[in-house]
Amino acid sequence: MKTIKNIFLLTAVAGLILSCGNNNGGKSGAMASSNAEKVYVAPGEHDEYYAFMSGGYSGNVTVYGLPSGRMFKEIPVFSQFPTSGYGYSEETKPMFNTSFGFVPWGDAHHPDISQTNGELDGRWLFINENNTPRIARISLATFETEEIIEIPHSAGNHASSFVTENTEYIVAGTRFAVPNPQRDMPISEMKGEFKGPLTFIAIDDSGHMKIDFQLNMPGFNYDLAHPGRNKSHGWFFFTSYNTEEANTLLEVNASQNDKDYIVAVNWQKLAEFVANGGGKKVPATYAHNVYDEKTHTATSTMMEGVTSIDPREVEGAVYYIPIPKSPHGCDVDPSGEYIIGSGKLSTDLSIYSFTKIQEAIANKDYEGDAYGIPVLNYENTLAGVVTQAGLGPLHTEFDGRGNAYTTFFISSEVVKWKLETWEVVDRQPTYYSVGHLMIPGGNSRTPDAKYLVAMNKITKDRYLPTGPELEHSAQLYDITGDKMELLYDFPTHGEPHYAAGIAASKIKDNVKKYYDLEENNHPYVAKSESETKVVRNGNEVHVYMTMIRSHFSPDNIEGIKVGDKVYFHITNLEQDFDVPHGFSMIGANTSELLIMPGQTKTSIWEPKREGVWPFYCTDFCSALHQEMQGYVRVSAKNSDTELKWSLDDE
Ligand code: RUQ
Ligand code: CUA
Fold this sequence. Notes:
One of its GO terms (cellular component) is cell envelope. The protein contains six helices and 46 strands.
């Protein structure tokens, strides 16, 4: 076994060297100019698609336009973001509350857009956090993170988020098997003792997330997932690896078994079971953080208890299906009939038939069981195999025209093949070592398949060098013809594990332009300059401040003392699109705040030294932006300087 593994590694390295040395992705002459036209979006014109890219270890999401590859925005999600003050303002700090305390960073992986009847509806974007298991919901009206829920009992929340076709559920799968409940025990005794809970989070009409139940699976590593759709709606499929339950040197020890498993879960059955009082309430503590658009404030609630289901207690709900060699991706085609599993260490792709899976279940056509969970017969559930398609298959997307596109990490290519005939019809190199790929709507019943974006893990020589660290590269292909055509390269931020693309027309008319000041329910709002004031409460000072082009009110404050805790509650009075103002205070040890029209945000400042200290607006908002500043007089702790505030001496 070890020799086989080494041969595999050698091939991997050889493949990488080969592909990196083979830089002929650029086209020259007439071809290049016609490709340039295809990605050219003239000044002032709009892109056809939004692409929401996971930021991986940046913890955030970036928003791009396709085909231009222009980056429009970084949406802070799991990480503090000084650009806007997210995670620094008092209103947003609760978003990072967890049962482990304040966790202001995360590892974001798989964004997915909400669906109605199997089609992208453009309401919300969900994305998972791998490290401290969480899922976030982002509003696609405000492009702000509105909710984060922690997933208890889970570790390495990778098989997530993935939306069912009416946004009934999203999921969270445990990539690192762990004791459940957590306990102090020898690591070497993990076999049979650790668990791999799969969490089903219900989404209500306003998008709010609630943990409905956890399926307490055997302690394998659950890596990726996709919901059934169309005919397989009601089911969820997960890949698992390390069915060896190895606890050390997994690169060798988790590659021993010839086959690992896909898990097929009938979630409708489980939901019914729970709705009828099934499952067991078990202890759990997890944070649920919700941002309110009207108070502009997040609250964090520590939740207690989840419903846990033993997969063996619900007849007909949970099955394992064998799959060759440590699978990674698990993808479902638009018809819902085909489930594609990619064994990273296999050169073949196994495609399962939903119809055959149902037959095997009906006939109890089992090969055996794993911890009491039936294992369906491999051969009899298989629809077909794409043989020798490439090296290191990872992820597959679909065009809705009967074709599938699979990425191969080691041979560094995207391979196009036909569903049902399983023949490879095209292959194009990627630069280099592609991970995920994305076709807008590729995750739905109706892919919008004009472009394909390959998200590569290695950049090397694709751009001007920027020191040892390079942004990852993405490649845009035109997939409207028989052959894929490489159009364009563009850098991405962090590590875009996955992306979700959607026609711009489904979002852009619903995008919020500013917040209505009249609807601002922030407890410290000042809706006009006449409502501004400064209130002392012991050594706590609350400043109710406003900002409008091009001044703060008040802009002179006296009577602040060393040792005070000064809360600047600042409301942007503007009621117009794209007129944020910033606030920054000398010596403040958080970040500046960028405050949107109609919004209130709070910054805490603890003055350390006597003097007269300036604050200013950080966003060039008008011709007199440089004049948008103010002063705070700070006196000694025991001074009797009178508390007063003014604008233009009034
Ligand atoms: S991963 S390259 Cu989805 Cu995090 Cu596969
Ligand atoms: Cu307000 Cu610059």
